Every structure is written in structure tokens, then in C-alpha cells.
Amino acid sequence: MTTAQLESAAQRSPQKRNWLETLGAVWAWIFLLALIVFFSITGKGFLSLNNFQNILANMSILAILAFGQTFVIIAAGIDLSTGYVMGMVSVVSAIAMTSLPPGLPLWLIVLVGAVVGILAALIAGIVNGFLIARLEVPPFIATLGMFGIARGVGFLLSNGMPVPIQIPGLGRLGNGYFFYYHPQIGWSFLNPPEGLERAQMRELVGVIPYVLVIMLVLLVVAHLILSRSKFGLRTYAIGGNKEATLRAGIPVVRQLALIYMVSAVFAALAGLVYNIRFTNGAANAGEALLLDSIAAVVIGGASLFGGAGTLIGTLIGALIISVLANGLVILAINPFWQYIAVGTVIIIAVLIDQARERMVRG
Amino acid sequence: MDNTPSQAAPILRLEHVFKRFGGLTAVNDVSVDIYPGEVIGLVGDNGAGKSTLIKMISGVYRPDDGRIFLGDEEITLSSPMEARNLGIETIYQDLALCENLDATVNIFLGKEPMRSLLGVFKQVDRPHMLEESTKVLDRLDIVIPNLRRPIRQMSGGQRQAVAIARALYWNARLVIMDEPTAALGVPEQRKVHELVKTLKANNVPVIIISHNLQDIFATADRIVVMRRGQKVGDLLAKDTSGDELVSLMVGVE
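Above: the input entities. Below: the C-alpha cells describing the complete assembly.
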């Protein structure tokens, strides 16, 4: 029976492929676990609720930025502008928030900052999308140009200085917790128990930082879009075979342009979280995060050739980077080693990716 | 099924079609009729004009002169998408599949069915896609274990099957296959031949371009031979031989 022959022919080579693909999906989890075990044993104070929450809160901004990058990389592109678009948004929304008349409620101020910031980012995203999707400028070049432009705009608007955002309550939004626990007083919700003395404040434990929750909500939304919506499916299709996607009748130009706009919106959200966390707008807010965001996506199993990747993977990637950064500090190792470690990890991840690709093509 | 040209109305009719590129006349006054359930083998040496002819039917090129009829209507195709919408499906040599996605997604790409998630979010209806894909593959008598595997893990024959299933699912009125067996091993070639016969049994006419005369003789009812842009032969497959075809293709008597 020819069908039987077909099946045996199909199953001959994929054994090895499957094995490699499983490794590609699992190694990041193993690596993360190994890092946590290693630092827990060697680093004093690494293994604690407080430190873990620190890692998660610090990771949130990077993760949000990397979520947008995930869409772009799955579509076989790259967005080098995210870091500085984030910085530009940070400055623009800081200026917007601080130039509002006094006395407005906090939620309104934050809303205005968010809307202005997202609009600013969308301009960058639309330009990126137009250049890449319509004019077919290579993504690397188009977004590198935008990298420079957004950087310049951010520094020009802020005169190269941080923009302080002195709005009561904003810092608590960015640094607060859902629950607080005090050994003598017990639990309280949203706000720390009142009337604490300085000595007692030390014993106060916050549980579940707000920014972590913001990040998780964005993760769920982005994950739904990527894994279940038509938009997400077509993002994978473009990354897998752009020509075939076009022949299937999908408006590839529009889809691709939208993907760069999604990336810009996530950059904006990262910039906004930065603002409430540090109560400061800064043009260089995302400077160090560009490399990390790409690393997080690639470590998370996305292929720089496009067509593969998940947001959960990206989350793991961001976690690995944050655990590494935190652990190195705790071990009193010069934190600059982190850059070398992340750079090395990117290269290793891409080598694995290439080996996988060669397996598939060969 | 018996299709003597005089009985049924042709599905596709080319009338005195020309295509010129600068000084070169790639297709020179070609007329062909294609009837329901008929398999046409299109053969010719490199540069004979086969591809150009096919591209005019699939909407890639517009003829400079001549007319194309689909059913009773004259058509002018301005894009491959328009041709697809009219039911002219072309299965290219590279199959145009997204190898990172599974068979069901490839069959439905561009026309994804949706269903609601909790009434607030529209999600791609994967169960429906799986169900329909299984049905159409059954119609083609193809068994692909685990349709959720990405295409890249499938064999060449299975990929062909997916591409054909896609064409059939969207109610193709005419299927064009460009070198369908070029990259396949012998058992898989045979499977493709079976698929062509299944399409024929579904009354869908097929045009096969192939360098492999075995493909042609295994599947075609009628063979159209092209040489230097012109149609030099239009023969019933059962009345001809490989030698005759080759001499027509290269132009020796």
C-alpha cells in the first residue's frame, strides 16, 4: 500500500528532528532551574521571597518589551528601535503627566500619560511598519534608523536629563504590593497597615508587586492574541513563508505593518511601567534592554529565521536574564559580566537555532 | 468517465493567446480547450513557453492578445488571487506551504474559520479546521497521521497531498500542477499520480506540467506539446508514444 510507504518515509528522518526540537523547547527551563539552584546554594540571600519578588518586579519591564519583540521575531523580522522608543515614550509621557493642571485624580493623570505615550510610540511603529512592509526596507536597517530617531527625540525633549514625575501616589503604584504582611499585625490588602513605626516597617513584607500583575495581564492578552487569534496565526505564517502567505490571499503588507505597531505599543507600555516604577522619565530608560529583549525572545525558543516562538518562552528568557543579573550581584561578581553572559547566551541560542534549521532543511 | 471533446462544454478555453516579452514571443497563437475531469499533460523543452502559458491561466501574466474563457464567461485575470477566487488553483513546485504550521492551518490559511471565546474574543476555530481537513483528506483517500504536526515533519508526498487538499477544499474548478513530482521518490510519485486521478474522479480537470514523461503517461488523457511558443501537438495519450513526443518537442520528424 502506497500510503504505508508514505508514512514510513515520513517517519524515517524526523526522529532526530523531534529530539532536537524538544531540546530547543526544554533547555531554557532546565537552564533557568540550574541557575536558580546554583545561586541558591552559592549566594547568600538569593533564596528568599523578597529577593524573588525583586527579580520578578525588575524583570517586568524587560518582559513587556520582549513580548512585542516576540511578535516581530516570529514574523522573521527584528525591532532594534524598541529600547529607545521605550525611552522616548518614557520622556513624552513624563512631560505629559507633569504638565497637567494640579488636582486631577491619579488615574486620570496615568491615563493621559498612557494615551500620549502610546500615540508617540505608534508613530514610530507606523513608520517602521511602512518602511519594512511597504517599501521592503530590511527590518534591521529600518529599525536601526528608528533607533537613532527615537533616541534623538527622547534626549531632545528632555534636554538629556531625567524628567522627574512628582505626583503623589505614583510611586506607590509602581512599587506597591497587593498584599502586605507584618508578623505582629498580620495581613493587609493594597495598602500597608497604618501607623507603623520605622522599626516595624523593616519587618513589613509586601507580597505580589503591582508591576508583576501588570506584566502578567499583558502576558495573558498577548498570549491569547498570538496563539489563538487570526492575527497571531498570520504572524506565524509570515515568518514561516511570506510568499506562501501572500499567495494564500492574506494582506501581508498590512499584517506586517501591524506587527511593528504591536511591538511599538509594547515598548510604550514598558516605558509607562518604567515611569511609575522610577517616577522618572528617561530617554535612556530602555537603552540596556534592547539586547536583553532580543536575548529573552531567542532564549525562549523563537527562531531568528522566523516562524517559531512563544510568549511563555520569552517570559522564561526574561527570567533567565533577570536571575542571572540578580545572582551575579549577590555573588558580588562585577555586574558587567552580565552583558558578556547575555551576549554569549544569545550566540549559543542562535547556534542551536541554526543547527535545528540545518536539520530541517538538510 | 468518457469525455469526448464534442459532448461536454469545456471548463477552460484559450483562444489564440499571445504573450510577448520585448522581441520574444513566448506564447504564439495558442488555443486549448480543457474539459471536465480531463487531465492534460503539458510538455515541451525548456523555454518552449509552458510556464508562460500557465502563468496566464493562473493570473500571473496577462495575455497580450487572445481570449480566455472559464465556463461560458470570458475572464481577464489581474492577479493570482483573482484566479484563485474564480476556482483556478495552482500548485507550484514549491507548494507554497508554511512549513512551520500544520496541515489544517495551511488548508485554511487566509480563510480561517473563527469562533467566539467567552463571547469577547474571536479565536481561530481549530477543532473545525481539523474536522474539515480530515474530511477533505479522506475524500482524497489520504491518511496523514497526526494532522497537528508542522508540514516540515511531513514527507514530500504528504506535502503534495496537503497542497492538493487545499485546492480541492476551496472548490477548485481547475487545478494546475507545476512539476508535481520533481522532488519526490518513486513511491511518492505514484501517490501523486493517484491524487491526480482522484481529482479527475471528482470531475476537476488538471493541467500537469512535467519534464518527467512517466508522470504524463501515468496520468494524462491528452497531451499538449509546445515548442518555441507554439502548440505543435495535441494528442490523446493512448495514441502516442514517448518517442513521438520527444520528436515533437525538439522538432525533428
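Note for the figure: The domain at 25-357 of chain A is CATH 1.10.3470 (ABC transporter involved in vitamin B12 uptake, BtuC).
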